[in-house]
What we know:
Elements: E1 4-5, H1 13-22, E2 27-33, E3 43-48, E4 55-59, E5 69-72, E6 77-84, E7 92-98, E8 109-115, E9 125-129, E10 143-144, H2 149-154, E11 161-162, E12 169-172, E13 180-183, E14 187-190, E15 198-199, E16 218-223, E17 235-239, E18 242-246, E19 254-255, E20 271-272, E21 282-287, E22 293-298, E23 302-307, E24 316-319, E25 327-328, E26 335-339, E27 343-347, E28 355-356, E29 372-374, E30 382-385, E31 389-392, E32 398-400, E33 412-417, E34 425-429, E35 434-437, E36 450-452, E37 458-465, E38 468-477, E39 485-488, E40 496-497, E41 511-516, E42 524-528, E43 531-535, E44 543-544, E45 554-561, E46 566-572, E47 577-583, E48 586-590
Parallel strand pairs: 1-2
Antiparallel strand pairs: 2-3, 3-4, 4-5, 6-7, 7-8, 8-9, 10-11, 12-13, 13-14, 14-15, 15-19, 16-17, 17-18, 18-20, 21-22, 22-23, 23-24, 25-26, 26-27, 27-28, 29-30, 30-31, 31-32, 33-34, 34-35, 35-36, 37-38, 38-39, 39-40, 41-42, 42-43, 43-44, 45-46, 46-47, 47-48
Amino acid sequence: PGDVADVVPKPAARRVQHVIRSASRVAHDVHVLPAPWPAVGDFLFASCGTFDQARVYRTTNAENDVAWEAVLAQPNMGRTTLAIAPSRPSTIYALSASNEPEAAVYQGMLAVWRSDQSGEAGSWTAQVRNTSTTDVLGPFLLTNDATVFEEICNGTPQSRLTMGWYCNTIAVDPADPERVWVGGVDLFRSDDGGRTWGRASYWWSKNMEGAAFVHADQHAIVFHPQFNGTTNRIAYFGNDGGVFRTTDARAQVMVGRDAICEEVFPAIRFEPLNYDYGVTQFYHGTVLPDGRTFLGGTQDNGTIRGTFQDGPNHWTNVFGGDGGYVSVDVDPTVVYAESQGGFVGRSVDGGKTFTVFRDGIDTSNFLFVTPMAADPNRSLTVWLGGAQMWRSSNGGPWFRASALFGNAVGVASAIAIAPGNSDRVLAGTNRGSILRTNAATFSTGGTSWIASRPRAGFVSSLIFDPGDTNVVYATYAGFGGGAHVWMSTDGGATWSPRDGIDSGALPDIPVHALAVDPTNRDRLYLGTDLGVFVSLDRGEHWSVENTGFAAVVTEAVFIGPGALGPAVYAFTHGRGAWRAELTLNGPRRRGARH
């Protein structure tokens, strides 16, 4: 989606917003050069393209319907972000990722470009490229430089982790057009117009001298409205860890080899502002039987654990990486968690500490967020899904529990185990198939599971009816292509759509999770891209949940123990985790935010 930076002059605001909306499917950065520079009107810039060839476009009279022209398009130019110098608007910078096919630079930095002629075509020059040899840091602005540490410092080649398609932002000091900030994995600053670069932050340690830690993966750099470079030097940084602030954006940064190879840290200081700020991006979550202890896998913040009494500001990280599924064993002291790509951890103290639990797995063919589920009937039995199914029994190593699915079927994206029957297991895939077996506890790497396919698309969840294991629901994440909720009454052999009818129909939006109320099995809760929907008749009609819950992406919704009995939980991708206590008539009240 398009980002808007700099203030749009009021006379042009309505029309510029229309342009931004029109470009929202492809634009990565949109900037306005405010009148009266040049005096003819508002100059509007938009960059389009990520893995395809990117281009920067300009219109010189944005308040009117005038033509756009491409002003910057270099070979292999990928995602490109833009920044106008507020103190000299004729100076504009662009930060481009690389689509060059060579592995070492693909999605690293291609170049930092600069124009001093209001972005005219032909006026852009490269200040630094990924081939530059005069600056140590410049070529790695969009690379996780922890992966090039050994190469830079000791001459030992390393595999580079390039991330320009994802964390890529640039900004100019409001009072100095030569002072430029870049956010990749870390933060960097140039004090000479982008030719040489210094390090401002380190992501890999929270104990760096001088509070130089800023969470990884930068997405936004914003200066205080009264920033003047002297009495006010405040700047804010948005990243995968929330919001950080410095009160001196002009302080020293580290340059050259010292920035990586020596234990010398910049003078610049940062502080996190992540208190009473509920924007955690959960992929999944669960609650322990006590109804007071919660775990969830989060985007780039690992698996975190919180308790009701500690409140929303005291969740702790218990398993690293990008958190994914979490699951509680029949024995609640045993908890499973994972990071990206099926890297599983196991806890034997209720989720307080984890050890790696991956013995027997000799492949990496899993989705980024890998489906995992503990057997609700048998202690120390857990399932993992990839290009085939994996099972661990009695706390032992992992074994293959199905034949390979094959490219046409896809990779596992959801798992369900029937309550009371450990032999009945279903697996959904990222290509729409739903596979099943009635001999799960005996299945091996040679066992072919039976497949059905209600529709194409991504199977986001599978859930058995708690009172009838012949009844099972499936949800699909994506737009178009058919219904998003399906029900089977024969254990997954055949399926019928349950998106509702007439005014009770669901909108065409991704659906991520479904929960069946065990106290009233006709009542279903649905996690969608627009919050939680509720059905009182098994999906024949749907309505928006009405306790005040936000219209936010809801990745996990389930019924679990609450403070007063059963409660419905919602783990969202951007607004934290929530609970609402249930009564016979539905949610009694909105639960406390976690």
